[in-house]
């Protein structure tokens, strides 16, 4: 029975994915290959091993406080003597995986960061036990300094000290975005009918959220050019000069083109901010930055104007942990925009935040984010769970101490081997670009068709089938799930394949299957030309 592809036209790529999976898995005589989602199949094991050993130490510390009671009851950990007890624990368990890492982590915190070893251990022990509300609710004190140092080193290099930035620990990057959108709206920084510029292509929810009824924002597309290796042309970035554009959203490196913004684009945006739009707010999602060579975030170029979002999910293989942070410079223009709101808006916000402070006008944007994340009234119970923050710290220390870059180099090599296998079997060369990250790859129907059988065939292919039809036929006939580029704002017929979630031989199999289908189309083309 023929499939009515038109009924799926308005589905987002991720909702469409479920239909493609259903079709691709409908046959029992083949293996479905789902390249439609970016959940990596690699993960960092050492900081996880350290987490579980640290948990055992923490339980012993708790039981020490209530040692007069029967087994199974513990108390609050004591800070006095905790460093000595931890050193003894490391010595007694030195042959176990993860223990040496914990010893190095303590040394790094104490000797390289200059933080109190006892205070660090006490925060980690109480945190992993989950025995107290997150205090401060925005982020635990030591955790903020350590995770903040990692994020800033990866995103901006040595341009900004950790003391320059406030961080808010969130339930992954998606929660961070939801909180930011909500607080911008609640504080009148974006209102219905305002213009929001979005760097396209982009993670599809960032297109969908501004258009929801509660936001009602007008989207201004900042289109990357595939002929420029998916960089933004100057003419597109010049749209940011429009004073009606309140905020610019982007993912950097991009999703799905998977390229980092080049220096020329960063410098042009910084120039526009400095000379034309000192009031422009910028929101950058830099989750893939740790896969790039010599990455530099917009937060490095325009720190006072930029809200930085980073998630630990992809680089550490931790999508299930839900670990993310929002970073805001302590000297930022958003706080200035809040102070400049009209009196009527100020009075409304005074009422909104009155349970938190007697001077709501002085409440920083990042602290409003925390309060709004718990409907203000529940601000006292806000914050990411403390065990999650401990794992975040261990991930951060793992990366900070990886002086040889072995982990990062290993992940990059894995991803790029997968890309090479896919394109080798497909029979075309992948694009070569120093700014490419390759976490995803965009399979361009026209480029691939032209590379295989020439311009005339490519033109015929574009007329022959829509991208939606192609993806359903691929799923039905080969069991391969790809996502349509159109749903991410790509203006050419393309499909997104994640290079992070399957094995190298499976990407080779995808390449062979797609080549076989292309050959079938070519036979049809030859018949039509006869």
From TrEMBL:
EC number: 2.6.1.-
Broad class of enzyme this protein falls into: transferase
Keyword Transferase applies: yes
CDD domains linked to this entry: AAT_like
Any one GO MF annotation of this record: L-aspartate:2-oxoglutarate aminotransferase activity
Matches recorded under PANTHER family: ASPARTATE AMINOTRANSFERASE
Record protein name field: Aminotransferase
Source species: Acetobacter syzygii
